[in-house]
Fold these 3 entries.
Entry 1:
Amino acid sequence: MAATSFFTRLARPSPYVCKQCLRNRSIARETRRAISNGWLQKTYEAELAWKDQALKIKAGEKQSMMTILEERGYIKDIAGGRDALDSLMIEKRIGAYVGIDPTAPSLHVGHLLPLMALYWMYVSGFHAVTLLGGATAKVGDPTGRTTSRDSVHSAAQKANMVSMHMQIKKLWVNVEALALKHGYKKEWAWKRALLNNNAWLNTLTLPELMRDLGSGVRLGAMLSRDTVKTRLQSGDGMSFAEFCYPLLQAWDWWMMYHRNGIQLQIGGSDQYGNICAGIDAVNHIRKTHHDPAVRQEKDEPLMQPYGITTPLLTTPSGEKFGKSAGNAVWLDPEMLSSFKLYQFFLRTSDEIVERYLKLFTFVPLHHIDLVMNKHALDPSKRIAQHLLAKELVELAHGAAAAGRAESENKELFSKGTTQIERSAIRQEIAKSMSEVKNSPRSDISPSLNPKAPAVTAQNAPSKNVILPRSLINEGAFPRILYAAGLVSSRSEGHRLVSNQGAYVAAEPAQSREMGDQLSWTPIKNFHAQSPPTFVIDGSLLVLRVGKWNIRMCQIVDDEEFEAQGLSCPGWDEFKAQKAAREEIEKEDGRNPFA
Ligand SMILES: Nc1ncnc2c1ncn2[C@@H]1O[C@H](COP(=O)(O)OP(=O)(O)OP(=O)(O)O)[C@@H](O)[C@H]1O
Ligand SMILES: N[C@@H](Cc1ccc(O)cc1)C(=O)O
């Protein structure tokens, strides 16, 4: 039998595989085995480390996550029970998330409260997800609002989303650098992701939502929410879309609970209602899911979802800092410079500076105590405020910007400056801060100054530029990259495109479950990729060179561009060539023999 099969095999024509390929195959097999073994080993070690840490916490040798969050002032309310969540976080490396709707081009200081709680969890070993509400932003959270939100043009919505996406990514990089600075060593088990709810809400069907979630949602509970009651009583009413907003937020949580093990949602205290609705929804779906492989028959305490709300950051008069209130302190350096952000925190009163140091920094508590003692000796030196301002700018804009803001500030307020000059400078800063506009498109500046000299990638003043429509419609990508200030010449643009070093944004979506990429298409040199096919809603083109260098190109008609007195690199040359071309065409039209 064996002999037969041996000869049968010999007789069967087999595809020829060369020795090199055979070697590669076996290397690939070995590598795969090595990776998966390595991964399993690390996962096992991480589990052991967590168990070991749990023992230390129970023995009182180490603080629990809950205690750290409480001590630093991050907890306003806990949904699901404080002690139960405390024990869960001791036993299990759960995942947590903070969701933000990109309804403005930038995050503001208020957002940092829930985000800092999440960052602390991350540097303590938990899995952390920042969720951008690309889909929920289109509806708009009605919580706490007495009127509906103004509708925002969809190009502006997309621009906001790309801006915030890049900003959140940068924040994560700065968080890691700050954690390192304050003595946290990055471990293999630290996991973070930036997701966008476009990925699942754009493909969610109504029957699916109704079957899985709608069946468990009680109308009474939805109607009794404060925002709904206020709107109905005040006569303004509420759209069905706004009424359904909490269902979309709840679906987000379910998706991330199921796919990524997210058991905790963190938000500002105004999010308490949405978070509770999310807990009910996740509990309903996990217990009643139609797929037995997903359904959780037993009520496992280690699988419960929980919520944390952080206190609201308010003005001294008690008003919430935020977009709707029109008093947001923006984190985007193009909307508020590092110097002004530094200034904002430098003006923190002595009464709240300690609280802010705990909330907005990774400075250990014992170090804050030392600083406060030193500060008390001579409050006029504002030692605590300087530390707060520097750490905050470092978090928002990075270490180099923080260093510059600090030295600029020291220079301005150095001994040579008189009291009168100082108060004039302060007034100037306060005035310009109050002028930071609140409109979602306020960041689009005529950043390439009227008749400005050539802008190079190195001195590009802004990630937001305005470009004339004909340049997009008739120009090729190298010219547009030059006009947008991403390269210093058209030929550099050509070289970059040939080397596939430039990208254009396609519909932002996520291909991988925990991936954090917007989708970008490499710009190539062939005709099918003509720039107008990438223009979003007729008025926005998003370009990227390298990892961080992006341009949001707002496209306006040529007449408007000229009327505003704007210019961009290569514009005069383009206009001259266009005029010459048109002239020749006119000539050709006149000459029937041409
Ligand atoms: N001033 C603040 N203090 C604490 N948390 C805040 C503050 N502002 C926003 N947040 C929190 O940040 C998260 C995202 O908020 P959101 O995007 O709705 O910002 P917002 O400025 O409150 O927007 P809007 O005013 O348009 O509702 C939520 O959890 C929200 O509670
Ligand atoms: N509703 C939140 C943002 C958010 C969006 C989606 C979520 O899944 C969670 C939170 C807010 O407006 O503040």
Note: Residues 1-15, 435-461, 508-517 have pLDDT under 50 and may be disordered.
Entry 2:
Amino acid sequence: MLTIRNIGKTYGSFTALKEMNVQFENGIYGLLAPNGAGKTTLINMLVTLIRPTSGEILYDGKSIHAMGERYRELIGYLPQHFGYYKHYSPRKYLRYIAALKGMKKSGVEKRIDEVLELVALSDVKDKKMRKFSGGMIQRVGIAQAILADPQILILDEPTAGLDPKERARFRHMLSDLARNRIVLISTHIVSDIESIANEIVMIRDQTLLYKGDIATICQSLQGHIFETTMSFDEFPSFRKDYLTLEEKQEQGRMIVRFYTEQPPKADWSSVVPELEDVFLVKYASESMKG
Ligand SMILES: Nc1ncnc2c1ncn2[C@@H]1O[C@H](COP(=O)(O)OP(=O)(O)OP(=O)(O)O)[C@@H](O)[C@H]1O
């Protein structure tokens, strides 16, 4: 179990995170927050690239800093921008990573074949990465992160730059990987984690806003999300008064999904809240919520 106990992080006089408490057990967690909310700061502390200014992080009750190398051996990490060698093939690159990680030589080749199979790159394992698509490179990144079969797998914005098909493939792959380990995926793209995360972790105002399952946080907006239709003329003033979540044009009218704390009106239909609604509502400024 990974425990974040009351950590804070300041950069000079700027507070990036404060009084943050979270516990992770095996499963997939989606770390969901807008850009700049502190996701990378949290991840950098979890992978020991930076130290918290206050508080501590424990793995099975032991300080990760005291554990040092023993802790780092448990981690697989895909940073937001990962460095690879264009003129290497995936296999050669993974051999290099295995050497860096100090993995035992016996079994490495078999393990490399296994992970390349898992990320569906077996047929190009000896091709230079120079001509690979963004999605293929990202899969090489995931392969290096899981190579040593880590207990804790941390992926920082792993779907940035992927097209929808590659995103779908990534989601399937991750469900297969998630057994018996902690998987933490940072993203600001709701659909990437909606279908695969067991729990989501949201950061707001430099601290933990929510940790729990998706159904529960969606439930918290029950009775506040509506859809209604209106003419184009009515729409600008409606938009000033309500937090709109989705706007569509259909047959010369606007169909608007929105959030409100007001009692329902006759021409509003209540709809089931989704994670996208939660994201938009929780990160909207208070003045917009109507
Ligand atoms: N080394 C640093 N020095 C000063 N401020 C920093 C530093 N690193 C991050 N910050 C600030 O801390 C805040 C949180 O940054 P962080 O990168 O953790 O956010 P994020 O949620 O990961 O966003 P993104 O997805 O854009 O990386 C931001 O306002 C950022 O400008």
Note: The CA atoms of residues 45 and 51 lie 6 Å apart.
Entry 3:
Amino acid sequence: MTSTSAAAAARATVHGYPRQGPNRELKKAIEGYWKGRVDADALRATAAELRRARWQQLAEAGVHEVPTGDFSYYDHVLDTSVMVGAIPARHREAMAADRSPSSRLLPHSQLRSSGGTPMRRGCPLDGYFAMARGTQDVAPLEMTKWFDTNYHYLVPELGPDTVFAADSAQQVAELTEALGLGLAARPVLVGPVTYLLLAKPAPGVAAGFDPLTLLDRLLPVYAEVLGDLRAAGADWVQLDEPALVQDRSPAVLNAAARAYRDLGALPDRPRLLVASYFDRLGEALPVLAKTPVEGLALDFTGAAAGNLEDLAAVGGLPGKRLVAGVVDGRNVWINPLEKSLATLGTLLGLAGRVDVSSSCSLLHVPLDAAVERDIDPQIARWLAFARQKTAEIVTLARGLAQGTGAIAAELAANRADLASRAGSALTHDPAVRARAAAVTDADGRRSQPYAERAAAQRAHLGLPLLPTTTIGSFPQTAELRTARADLRAGRIGTAGYEERIAAEIREVLAFQEKAGIDVLVHGEPERNDMVQYFAERLTGYLATQHGWVQSYGTRYVRPPVLAGDISRPEPMTVRWTTYAQSLTDRPVKGMLTGPVTMLAWSFVRDDQPLGETARQVALALRDEVNDLETAGSSVIQVDEPALRETLPLRTAARAEYLAWATEAFRLTTAGVRPDTQIHTHMCYAEFGDILQAIDDLDADVISLEAARSRMQAAAELATVGYPREVGPGVYDIHSPRVPGVDEATALLRKGLDAIPAERLWVNPDCGLKTRGWPEVRAALENLVAAAREVRESLPGAAS
Ligand SMILES: Nc1nc2c(c(=O)[nH]1)N[C@@H](CNc1ccc(C(=O)N[C@@H](CCC(=O)N[C@@H](CCC(=O)N[C@@H](CCC(=O)O)C(=O)O)C(=O)O)C(=O)O)cc1)CN2
Ligand code: MET
Ligand SMILES: [Zn+2]
């Protein structure tokens, strides 16, 4: 095919689309189902209607080929486990037992609801949700971050005994629905190599087990699914292999080569499009290019832009289809259309056919910027959410196929919008820039070394050995959320809302004092979210009203937008912290979200290096830290749960990231007196990669998620000689289970194997916002009892 015909054939598509619906209808239907308020048929009907509406929207926008199979009731990786029959044994047994009258398989929310909810039986949805959320008797699959995004997937559990079996029902049904609407549709599956690379050894299987050894067993299952999809009318099927953008061993690259050679050799199959995104494909590019697959989808945005030169270096993809991800699926800025057209033009010479798409699924961006009413219309023109991105993709495909003349109006408007952003005062605040430029090394260093600070803090705080504390949030009750919704809707005034918050703080403080906790928190009742709350109070940040993005299951966040230079017009947390401190003689921890997490869980500026944005945020937070100290806080926690997840996917980029990330944290925290204790908190396991960085934060105390891994994080820190205080979590707050005193005691003793008593804290894994009060009360009382028991048993303990 010549370039010209490649251009003429250019089509628009997307890799995937938000699932929740314009008003999070899916969340509401699923949570209603869990509560017994919505029946299975109604839930299925809502889901089908949402799928229909999104396909229709894509088609009406001019998308030529819509994705199918990207919908999910909970998580598409879990759906893949169902598709290949990788149901953990404990769930298989529970589902079988569920048919017997003695079964206790039912969702937690039903267990906890005050009786009267009928148990559902024999419904496949329940088995599915049990894998996602667990039941009273059966633990769920583990949840972890999808690459470096804020989306969480359920980790497949595999072992040498895993028997795969194809179940293509959901994929076939969705394809059939879309084809029934008269649309060209392309099923999207998690590819077999990525699926295995994301898996972990099932419980009871040796940790050294490598799931990739199951490839030969898995490929026939994919072959069967592909056959079923072909029979159902699939012309193309997309297999997502984002795991191949990470540094991979020759063994993994060989596995990829084998997988696509074998799938490519199937006699009656759809054409195959292998997709990668989030970074450049690197050494996997020539490997995949040599396989018989008919197409590759590559990311050409951000760090992945290097795919362009890599593609040229391998001589392009002659005769193959290239789906060019030129519209960023991870960020919310309008596309520079002319730049993208130039990229697409170059790509025309490098492939048999070029189509236009998003860089990755649009799952990671909100649905529609046009429904935001509170964003300045001038600034709203700079934003593209899923709906606007779809329009950009269609425009680019038209421009590619018909020439720029066909999209002259769009290009002119785009030029004006880009110029308005570039020239805006919002993005260039001279005071912020001057302050950031004047930062010195000394600003990021505490005035005394850790050992001296520790002594000063010990004298100042007078805490017992094994001090108890919590991570910040207490239950975000329906009453609190409703009060906030009422305030927004004008049903209550500010005074009424604030009285509600004050009352909650009094209750949280009273409970902690009674329970005997040593370092208290105010409970964060005033915060809708630990990132959005601060974004709403910082100049240069935009918050959205409806910009929901799925974080996991039915939980969503509204990532704010780092749009301009960041400054803090006034203190953000001092008032509620001071109020809480006025209610007690014990120390109340000030509670802030750190600069790295503020970036990681927001949409970031793409017009300056991330490190510069981080420094601006850090300086604003530094003022808050210092103000808290001035107002009387002796303990201040700066949460950095996202420090690990934002680690670049390719190791070559990691050192630079860790340098600016740790610098931003130190800049936030280093302005306090030596006797002010700085805490930090991280709650995503796999700290092994960033132990040095944790040390470089120079925080006085770190609390970590450790309950499920039985103190592994504490042990890892100990192996590198971590010198500071550590609170490895002894309460897994992701589960409604209440840990018993013995269980917490055992974990603490295990913690003592790694960290000496003088440096060990007692706390939960993370905040308690998603938990209910009854569990929280019982669990924290047990945690305090365990701390006392272990304290008393320590050698030399005063009896
Ligand atoms: N940004 C961010 N990323 C994160 C985390 C995090 O805490 N924040 N934690 C990890 C993921 N964990 C998460 C844990 C919980 C929720 C969560 O509970 N989300 C809530 C929404 C939280 C929120 O924004 N609440 C607002 C708005 C609540 C709301 O839905 N209001 C209703 C009306 C009120 C009502 O009737 O409930 C509406 O606007 O329609 C508030 O409290 O004000 C949900 O999906 O339900 C999300 C992620 C990793 N990434
Ligand atoms: C995801 S980390 C959460 C930390 C926050 N301080 C909380 O307790 O909710
Ligand atoms: Zn946490």
Note: The mean pLDDT is 94.
